[in-house]
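Sample pair:
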Amino acid sequence: MDSNEVLSTNIKIYMVKTKKNITDLSKDTGIARSTLTPLIKGQSKMVKFETLDKITKALNVTVDQLFDFKYL
């Protein structure tokens, strides 16, 4: 499993835990749905640090938690 899959899976898990859907995450982060969708589907080839920072703040997690393999 590569880092894109880990990131994608963990974002989905934390979205469920915080009861957020992609629209909520988009509104909370200011990141367009068109940017978030491939990221959440594991189709994104690159993620900006700024994007990760916004997602971690919206989901109240750390970057380490988003790349943690414990749920896999």
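The domain at 3-59 is CATH 1.10.260.40 (434 Repressor (Amino-terminal Domain)).
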